Amino acid sequence: MSVKSCEKLEKSKIVLTIQVSAEEFEAAINKAYLKMRGKINVAGFRPGKAPRKMIERMYGVEVFYEEAVNIVLPDAYEGAVKEQELDVVGYPEVELVECSKDGVTFKATVAVYPEVTLGQYKGLEAPKAEVKVMAADVNARLKEMAERNSRLVSVDRAVKKGDTATIDFEGFDNGVAFDGGKGENFDLEIGSGSFVPGFEDQLIGMKAGEEKDIDITFPENYTPELAGKPVVFDVKVNEVKAKEVPAMDDEFAKDVSEFDTLKDLKADLKKKITAERKEAAQRAFEDVLMQKVADGITCEIPDELVELQTQRMLDNFKQQMAAQGIPFEQYLQMTGSTEDEFKSQAKGPALQQVKLDLAVAAIVKAENIDATDEDVEAEIKNVAEKYSMDVDTVKKFLPADQVKEQVIREKVIKLVADSAVATAPEEPKTEEEPKQEEEK
Fold first, then answer.
1. What is the CATH number of domain 151-244?
2. CATH 3.40.50.1000 for the 2-112 domain, yes or no
3. pTM
4. Going by C-beta distance under 8 Å and a sequence separation of 6 or more, which residues neighbour residue 316?
5. SS3 string of 106-136?
6. I need a surface site. Which of 32, 33, 394, 437 has the fewest CB within 10 A?
7. Which CATH class for the 277-423 domain?
8. How high is the mean pLDDT in each 10-residue block of the chain (440 residues)?
């Protein structure tokens, strides 16, 4: 194999003209013969036993050429890419130029990773939010904790919104019970939206022991058998339960945390909320900076890179849907869209991600950034501690090269952020709100 020429085209594409020698092609023809001879019938010979020369006399010398080309092309192409030290993207478009006993010449057009010229990536400016934690923020977090530790208690009164009603129910379509429309001692939180619209509201005001017929019209997008149909539910309330939220005092602090007083719990919550918001503000700051870096590069991005990233985003989304128990086809039906429409909408974000990846790679090269084995081990340990896993388990799920890539990326982001200038965010134009007390 020899490379006759390597021509650069627009949008980071190149054309390789590759020549395969007569000797290499002859070896490929012989492989093709050995592979195909069992399928070629020649009078006087058992299947697979006819000599190559006999077959070529009967069917022409070119009988094995097509298969021989298929055999020789991949290795010749890979050899040419390696010889020219090309970082290719995707698969090549191949054009056969010449094929004879004297050898094969073909052209391979393929996209390559583009040459990137970096813009400014040090000393950039970006807004960064000032972190303040108000008393209301801490109280809101306390309220969430209290809600999680609430319990349901039986009450002797009519159903209110927010209560849980234990009900028996059965649905009828023109007097005939329908499948899936019956339940006994079912706990329904009023206002949760768990049932068909209108059902829960009609339970408000009922007491334990009361029965009632509830008229409901199913939505048009419901199951085909019931979509748009008016039905009647026979409902009986067996019990009314209200949520009892614990008082937020020292006893509450002891029950839900390692602290003995509500004051200490509040102080810990303030510390945690502050840390969370600082991390979020830093990430938002870094995201803006890295977007500026990505927008500042100059290069010809091949369409193939964007297509690959678009497909990657689609595959990731399919996995997320599957993890939630929703097949992608079902998601498309629910949203009334197609896979092609999804990919079309993903093209913009995919292009931005490609630009960001190219910018990061260019900074890595310019700054000679790398990650040591110690860096990788430290990151794996951090992940293990964060998710309460042992290190060996993390290593099974996170390959070392993937962790190394992430460590290098974080080093790039840190380099950009450490040299950047944080500015005050623009205040949104809204009506004046009452000032809140900052948590002391």
1. 3.10.50.40
2. no
3. 0.74
4. none
5. EEEEEEECCCCECCCCCCCEEECCCCCCEHH
6. 437
7. mainly alpha
8. 92 94 94 90 83 89 93 95 93 94 94 95 95 95 93 94 94 90 93 90 95 91 84 95 93 94 96 96 96 95 94 94 89 87 94 96 96 92 89 88 93 96 81 54
